[in-house]
Amino acid sequence: MDFSKLDTLKDKLDQHRPLSPEVLKNLHEDLILKWTFNSNAIEGNTLTLQETKVVLEGITIGGKNLREHFEAINHKEAILFVEELVKQNELLNQHDIKSIHALILKNIDASNAGKYREINVIISGAEHKPPQAVEVPVKMQEFIEWYKKEHSTLHPIELATRVHVDFVGIHPFVDGNGRTARLLMNLELIKHGFPPAIIKVENRLEYYKALDTAHTTQNYEPFLELVCKVVEESFEPYFYVLGFNI
After folding, report:
1. Nearest residue to 72 via CA among 62, 82, 57
2. Is 153 helix (H, G, I), strand (E, B) or coil?
């Protein structure tokens, strides 16, 4: 996989960093909204983009259940936590993964928030079968050991892709694995100076197919191609506010 185009886009953006506080604030609000809306919508949350915006501003939407409200609020908190982790610039570890997940399920499922599953699960519509619950702690330890070994040798986009695919393949939690995986992917991208990649709900089918292909055949290329496309799109808001095209 050739990452030269994306590296060039990153270099172009780096030339304009640091961005002004006003520009950053505007981009940040838009990013949190779109990331939260799309990540939750992929998982079946029915809040629209505008409804998500209103919920994040602290207003309750009539006719929508409490869980959907908490999913939006929690996801924003999880993004802010990920941004704090970026500042610390430490290697990925199980404690931080559990902390991100605990935020995702806050006020929704206290008994499972931040805790590895103790039951076996199947992923609806997927061929891939995650490991049995008893294997999860060992699989997660192996995942972190692989990450520590490979994080400095893989291109950041390939690293972020592998983190997402391999984490969600383990499916360590009862619920919230997809949201957590996308947060972990973006944690790695942001650490390395790339904008967060927002997988849109309209790409859900392609996204699920590419994930299942990676899990069942170890062919990461379709998922990597999807992430590269999404990363390229993620530069557009930055270049728009700076006044030039990609």
Report:
1. 57
2. coil
- Side chain identity at residue 200, one-letter code: K
Burial track 154-183 (b if 16+ CB lie within 10 A, e otherwise): bebbbbbbbbbbbbbbbbbbbbbbbbbbbb
Neighbouring residues of 227: CB distance < 8 A, sequence distance ≥ 6: 157, 160, 161, 164, 185, 197
Sign of CA dihedral 69, 73, 76, 77: negative
Question: How many other CB atoms are there within 10 angstroms of residue 139's CB atom?
Answer: 19
Distance, CA of 105 to chain centre: 15
Cβ pair 130, 118 in contact under 8 A:
no
Residue 210 CA to residue 126 CA, distance in Å, equals 11
Q: Which residues of the chain have pLDDT under 50?
A: none
CA pair distance 75, 79, nearest whole angstrom: 6
| CB-neighbour burial class of residue 186 (10 A; exposed 0-12, middle 13-18, buried 19+) | buried
The set of catalytic residues is 171
Tell me the C-alpha to C-alpha distance, in Å, between residue 190 and each of 44, 157, 208: 26, 10, 23
| pLDDT tens digits, one per residue of 171-205 | 999 999 999 999 999 999 999 999 999 999 999 99
Name the token pair of 104: 């995702």
Between CA 104 and CA 74 the distance in angstroms is: 5
d(CA 160, CA 59): 34
- The answer to whether the pTM exceeds 0.85 is yes
Architecture of domain 19-242: Orthogonal Bundle (1.10)
